[in-house]
Amino acid sequence: MHNDYENIVHWLLMHLGHALSDQVPLWVHSFLHVIVFWAPLAISTLLIIAITIKLYRKLLLEKIQRHNNKELPTTVIGSSVFSFIIRNTLKQQALLIFLGITVMPVLYLILELPKIIINDVINASDLPISFLGWSLSQNQLLFTLSGVFLSAISIGGGLKYMLNVYKGRVGEHLLRRLRLNVYKSWRNGSGSRRRTEIIPLITQELEPIGGFASDVFSLPVFQGGTFITILFFMFMQDPILGAAALTLLPFQLFLIPKLQKRVNKLARLRVSEIRSLGGELGDQSSHHIQNREGILVVSSHLRRLERIRQKIHKTKFFMKAINNFLTALTPFFFYSIGGYLVIENQLTIGALIAVIAAHKEFSNPLKELFKYYQNAADVTIRYNETIKFLRLKAYPTDHEEIVQKTG
To answer: What is the pTM of this model?
Structure first.
């Protein structure tokens, strides 16, 4: 069994262009085993488990929602935040996706040019250099490629600016429509009997949904595309370095979702507590309550809200610290394994520098994708709480009053 495992690893390394010999140090041998075998195996296993659980929960949730929808009245905003966003911003989402995809070729060019400048210009031995049919000196080609690099950075920055500005327009437009729909439903009698709860709902709780509406598809496409582009660039320089960039990803995929579930649970408690506090303040204001009992009730709400928010902060910062540590640990593999490959003349110094520089950008899309996962969970909670609020009937509408009087 052990020999079969060794044969598999050696076969993988041979096809990746790095056959192991007896002269390879033991520490390099161990790292290569982790990089090319155990890390990909862990990632594949976690993804299969996560997809299976996700599909099971989705089917179970749809079954529960179908059962509940038979008993509960519908609302004007739709059954889910995703359906509401798609129904109101489908064309705008398509344009955002197109802008996000357009940035990817420019990004790859920005990553590739520094390696070309170092390996083919600064370290060039054959002069003059032939470039696209032109015979250029070393200095001419250096400044030409530097100008192309500057142009690529400018174009990429301009495209990102256009994407972000348009995202802001889409988010604000959908937020205005959502607030107006909730307000109209509230005017028609929907909502709890504590009518003042509508104030924090419209002004605060719905605010993040507008920002999420602009990111719902464009952010996974843009950040996911950035992640794949950088990873593809790393693999093109050397498959071992590309695999090394994914070595610690299983720990992130395992730990971050578990911590996020804890944050989601606390977020639901926070939303419920804020709405309850708003209702209590509204009741005291309408009834002109100024006794000590009212102060104690509000103080109790504030104390519970403080504890909930402290727990959220602790969990979020712990999750951030774990993610930052694992991200900062990855360059260890680049310096050790990559440095060894450069010494053994199996990798150019330009390719290693390019991979290290690319990894600085590699962690950003991962952070944004994890943040997107957090925001999606938070927005879903807020949207579902809004639906629950609107499904309550505080008082009969004008039409219901007429029916009651004439019936």
So the answer is: 0.72
